[in-house]
Amino acid sequence: MQGFMTPPRKLHIKSYGCQMNVYDAQRMVDTLGAEGFVETTEAGDADLVILNTCHIREKASEKVYSELGRLRVAKEDAARAGRAIQIAVAGCVAQAEGAEIIARAPTVDVVVGPQSYHHLPELLARAGRGEPAIETEFPAEDKFSLLAKPSRDAIRARGVSAFVTVQEGCDKFCTFCVVPYTRGSEMSRPVERIVDDVRQLTDNGVREITLIGQNVNAYHGDGPDGRPWTLGRLLYRIAEIPGVARIRYSTSHPNDVDDSLIAAHRDLRAVMPFVHLPVQSGSDRILGLMNRKHGASDYLKVVDRFRAVRPDIAFSSDFIVGFPGETEEDFRATLALIDQIGYAAAYSFKYSPRPGTPAADLQEMVSAPEMDERLERLQALIDSQQSAFNKAAIGTVVDVLFERAARKPGQLVGRTAYLQPAHVMASHDIVGQVLPVRIDSLERYSLLGELVTAPAANSRAPISPAPFLSIGG
Ligand code: 5AD
Ligand code: SF4
After folding, report:
1. Residue 458's pLDDT band (cuts 50, 70, 90)
2. Is 473 a member of any domain?
C-alpha cells in the first residue's frame, strides 16, 4: 500500500492483439490500482509502462521490440532527470520468449506471462531490488480469483459493454497457431464466479456482456450442481441476471457447437444473432494440413444449424491465405465457401510461420506476391459482402445499444445486434439503453438514423469503444 505522503505512481499499459489482452489489461490495472497505481494514457508520464503483447503473427511480435527501442530512450532520458521508469512485458510474447526478451532488450525490468498477472506487484518489487523478475509458469492456482476486482468507478468509466473471460487456453493445436503454447491448455472458470463478475458489472451500468475465451464454446466450467456446464447452459444463466440486455461470446470453434448453444440462440433474446465462427480456409486439403478436424461441408452444416433457429443470424470469420502448399484451386475453394455463407464481416491474414508450431516446418511456402494477391481478392469479396449486409439495414428499424457521445456534437453512437456502429442525434440520457432506430443511410461502415420513439430518461456512465477482435480461432 501507499504511504501517506507518496503521490500515486502512474501506470501506462499498451495492449496489442485480441480481446483477451484488452480484458487482461483491465485486470492488471485493477490489480495494480490496489497497490496505489493510477492509469495514465501518456506513456511519457508513467512510472511503469506495461506492453501487453501478442505473438499470433510475426508482425505483431516484432512491434514489441520497436516499442521497446523507443521506451529505452524515454527511460534513459528520465533517469538523467532523476526519475525511474519500470518497463514490463506481459502477454503472449512474454510467455513465448521469457528471458530472451531481457537478453535482447535489457531495458526491460519484468517479464510476465498471461497466467501470472496476479504476481505483478511482487515481480515489480523484485525488479526494484535489482533481482530477476521473469515469470512464465502455468501455476496451478486460478489467477482469476487472485486478480483484484475492478472498482465501481473503473467499471463505469469503461462503459456499457464489458468482456468477461470464461475460458482460457486451447487444446485444438491447429498447426499454424501459437495459442496452445502461449495460453496453455483449456481451462474454464466456475459458473458462479462468472455470475458474480457479471452481477458486479451490471450493478454498475454494464448492459452488454461478451464472454471471451480462446475456444469459448469448449467451455466446461463447474456449475453450482458440481457438474460441468456447457457454454449454452451458461448463456441461459447469464441471461437471468438483471440488467443484462445483450450477451455475446467469442471465439468459437465449429467443432464445439453443441445443441445447447443452438438452443440458447433459439430461446434467448439477449443472445445476439451474430457469431464469430472462424473457418480459416474453404479447402478440405488445407483444413486437413491445418489440423482443423473439420471440412468445409461440416462448417456449412454448423452454420445451417444456427440459421435453422435464427434466420436473422449473421456470421464473421477469420481466414488465413497462403498456408504452405495452398494452390490457386485451394484458394478458390475458400472464395467459394465465402460466397456460399455470405459474411457480415471477417478478418483475414497472410500466413505467418510461428516458431515451434508444426506448420513452421512445412517447406512449400506460397510466394509473397501470391499471398498479397490472394489476400486482396479475399478482402474484396468480404468487403462486398459486408457492404451489402450494411446496405440491407437502410430503411429498416433496428435495435441499438447506445454507448457514448460521438465526435459530432449532439450525436450518440451505439451498436446494432451485428456490432455495426449506428449514429443518431439524441440526448446523452439514453446511453445504456437499447432503443429502436430507423436507419436512413450508410457512411462508410457506420449506419446513420433516428430514434423511432422518445426514450425514457436514464443516465449512464460514459464509455470507451470496445474493439471486437478475434481471439484464438
Ligand atoms: N499466421 C496467420 N494468421 C494466424 N492466425 C493464427 N495463427 C496465425 C498464423 N500463424 C489467425 C487465425 C486465427 C486468428 C486469431 O489469427 O485466423 O483465427
Ligand atoms: Fe486453438 Fe483457434 Fe489456435 Fe486453432 S486457431 S489452435 S482453435 S486458438
Report:
1. very low
2. no
Pocket lining: 254 vs ligand 2, CB cutoff 6 Å: no
Coil vs helix vs strand at 66: helix
pLDDT digits (tens, 9 = 90+) for 12-57: 999 999 999 999 999 999 999 999 999 999 888 899 999 999 999 9
Based on DSSP, count helices (H) and strands (E) in the chain, helices before strands. Answer: 15, 19
Kindly state if the Cβ of 214 falls inside 6 Å of ligand 2: yes
Residue where a domain terminates, one of 256, 272, 288: 272
Structural domain of 407: 397-463
- CB of 50 within 6 A of ligand 2: the answer is no
Contacts of 408 (CB under 8 A, 6+ apart): 423
| Total domain count, the chain | 3
Distance of CA 230 to the CA centre of its chain: 21
Same structural domain, 37 and 129: yes
The answer to whether residue 359 sits within a structural domain is: no
d(CA 348, CA 346): 6
- For residue 36, give the C-alpha cell: 496505489
Ligand number with the minimum distance to the CA of 359: 1
